[in-house]
Task: inverse folding
């Protein structure tokens, strides 16, 4: 759930995936499926994208998402990772 | 008890937790590698790397030599399904001797 909540905080974000699509992050779900607005692609490389303004991308097809470092607090992100690691190892001990 | 839990590595993902805020080396699917500072991870091995350098290895047609090109990114999320292994980059290239 960490990355779900993380991306939920990142509205207005430039993104790229394998076919390098850049756009503004409009919405995200638990599978990290994403919806982008203001879509821009390399027209020379992918002419079939030229008319696309808004797109849904299945999470499983994403390799990378490049983020704007100015809109991310990396310390908060590290703390959240530690907290989630603690929580999940705690679950296992309780479940034993 | 709490201290022991935060320092020791009892399960595989704990090794990744100990790499938080450190330079790591990630082997990826598709003949790719990436180094960068680990900012976040989860149980799917989704990760966020800062100041990352990606190296992509490829063959050019008619040539036997493996070539590589590098791409840099200030902050990148890598989806866990392309991650093959994660290592502490400070240990790369060092021998135990």
Result:
């Amino acid at each position: 759930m960490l990355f779900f909540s993380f991306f939920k905080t990142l509205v207005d974000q430039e993104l790229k995936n394998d076919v390098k699509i850049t756009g503004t992050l409009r919405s995200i779900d638990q599978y990290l499926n994403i919806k982008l607005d203001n879509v821009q692609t390399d027209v020379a490389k992918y002419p079939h994208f030229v008319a696309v303004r808004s797109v849904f991308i299945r999470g499983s097809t994403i390799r990378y998402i490049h983020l704007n470092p100015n809109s991310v607090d990396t310390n908060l992100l590290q703390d959240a990772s530690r907290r989630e690691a603690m929580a999940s190892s705690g679950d296992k001990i309780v479940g034993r | 008890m709490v201290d022991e839990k935060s320092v020791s590595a009892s399960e595989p993902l704990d090794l990744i937790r100990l790499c938080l805020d450190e330079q790591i080396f990630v082997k990826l699917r598709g003949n790719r590698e990436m180094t960068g500072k680990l900012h976040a991870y989860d149980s799917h091995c989704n990760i966020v790397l800062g100041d990352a350098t990606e190296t992509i290895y490829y063959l050019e047609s008619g040539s036997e030599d493996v070539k590589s090109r590098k791409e840099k990114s200030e902050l990148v999320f890598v989806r866990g399904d392309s991650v093959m292994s994660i290592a502490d980059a400070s240990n790369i290239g060092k021998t135990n001797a």
About this structure: The mean pLDDT of chain B is 87.
